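From the pipeline queue, job 12 of 40. The input is one protein chain; the requested action is below.

Action: predict structure.
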Amino acid sequence: MGPPHGRSADAEDPATETARQRADRLLELLGWGYGPTTDVTPPALGMLVTAIAALERLGYPCAIEDLEPYARALGQLAVHDLDLVERYGGTPDEQVEAAVALTVLYEPVLLALRRLAEAEESRRRFGRA
């Protein structure tokens, strides 16, 4: 069974190898505890590699300097997410449940806000949404 988003990364594909190296360098730059020297490989890392490989294959910008601002902004968002969970309170099991629920429930909110923000920036820059 492949990853939930996109096709699975093919280790023989040059774009996948480039994407894997780029993801590892990005996570190292950020100081996030994942990468080739750790035993932990979250599913999201595979999703990241697959997405970067797709951008690479299509020739869209996906260098470290393109990805880093997204990662840093999302790092700040993760702090806010966990602040919400702590504010929610409850037992440790209830907090884990809240973390999962808030992640799932806030994803469409975040996507909608991103699209609205991009429409607003487009309007500012180009006079239209």
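Job complete. The radius of gyration is 17 Å.
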